[in-house]
Amino acid sequence: MQKIGRTELLTQYAKGRRDFSAIDISEADLFEADLQGINLNGSDLQKSYLPYSNLSQAQLQQAQLQAAELSDTKLCQSNLSQANLQQANLSRATLRHANLRGANLAYTNLQGADLANADLRDANLNYANLSGANLTRTNLSQAQLKGAILFRSHNVNFSNAYVDCSTIYPDGHRHDCQASGLNCES
Question: Which InterPro entries match (predicted)?
């Protein structure tokens, strides 16, 4: 995997290059970068700093984005399937119509994120914070939501999602596992 820096990436992108698949740009400072339509499939962006960036329609399949700073980032219609976003900060990010199928979002901050019409099938959202998130028509089928915080999130459809006694629902309550006969592990 080739390591490239901020300047090289932005220069090549400005010249029309869009395919940056399988590159290492970890820990890069890409604050407010406009990288709409970029292909970063399989790339390493761990601990990258990308707040207020535009990654709409980006290809980020199987990208490594652990602990990346993506607050207020535009990721509309981006493909993040099978991406690892564990412990990333996606607060207030716009992920409308994004493909996050099978993505690892465990311990991720998604507070106030707009996930309307996003595909989160088979995603790992264990212990993620989705407080105040917009989940209108978001597909959460087979998504793991153990310990997830969904307080004041909007339009959540838990059909076919995996929740447990530690999941905090939009109204702030947890499921009463004893009354329903569920086994709740602490």
Answer: 5peptide_repeat, Pentapeptide-BTB/POZ_domain
